Amino acid sequence: MKHTELKNVFDTLEKAFTELSIDYYLIGALARQIWYERAQMKFRTTRDVDYAILVGSHQEYETVKQYLIKNENYLPIRENAFVLISPDGFQVDLLPFGEIESQGSVKIEGIGMTTIQISGMKEVYENGTEIVNLETGNTFKAATLIGIVLLKLVAYDDRPERRQKDATDIGNIFVNFFDMHQDLIYANHLDMFDEQERTLENISAIVLGREIKKIISSNANLIDRLNRILNDHINSGEKSIFTQLIIKEIGKEIDLIIEYLRDILWGFENPSKPVD
Asked: Residue 66 above 70 pLDDT?
């Protein structure tokens, strides 16, 4: 799908966020799609637009929604209080984070889905976004693929029964990680090419772990949680549904998937060595 189809959505949201002095960044499937397109890699496209928006209160969040409803003819839906439908029929998820949150979640008034888990959004906002310039003329901050993996690890852990696509997305990002991050790897992780023999997949996993750790370095609770998530899947082995979903996506043997998870954890605990 061409981003030009979303220009009206981008324009109206950018206008709303600017007028209301709301900071924001693009997350979810569209952010992932942008990075894949930049690397000229194919992946499934999406019609959904997800924004993480920094708000200080429930009132401020409601003001954003009402602005779009009253001024731009967006429509709420009964099933999910965090979703609006644009006049063009695109689903727009507005996911609040910041002072509005309480213990890693946000609960708002409404019907349908009114509570979301948002652990990691603040950290990605601070350390895991890059500026993207779209052919529509719009410029946004978007979560990096590393930030997306972090958010998907947490989201799957929160609701594994409803977030199975997060596991398959992580698998797909992983197998393409080296090709899409060669500049980063050669610039900041040259110790991966020392005497020890490592496959490109091993290197990708270790670098992914290191870079995730950088994003969440200021949040001890989130560090502990990521350690627990990775260890749980490693210890569960073939019984882990998460691991099974990754196998289904990338076609590797269970032993290799567990090895990659161990590598992510090793990278999480071992930062890159300075170059002599």
From this structure: yes
Task: Write down the pTM of the prediction.
Answer: 0.94
3-state secondary structure labels for all residues of the chain: CCHHHHHHHHHHHHHHHHHCCCEEEEEHHHHHHHHHHHCCCCCCCCCEEEEEEECCCHHHHHHHHHHHHHHHCCEECCCECCEEECCCCCEEEEEEECCCCECCEEECCCCCECEEECCCHHHHHHHCEEEEECCCCCEEEEECHHHHHHHHHHHHHHCCCCCHHHHHHHHHHHHHHHHHCHHHHHHHCHHHHCCCCCCHHHHHHHHHHHHHHHHCCCCHHHHHHHHHHHHHHHHHHHHCHHHHHHHHHHCCCHHHHHHHHHHHHHHHHCCCCCCC
Residue-range domains of the chain with CATH: 3-143 (3.30.460), 152-269 (no CATH)
Tens digit of pLDDT for each residue in 221-269?
Answer: 999 999 999 999 999 999 999 999 999 999 899 999 999 999 999 999 9
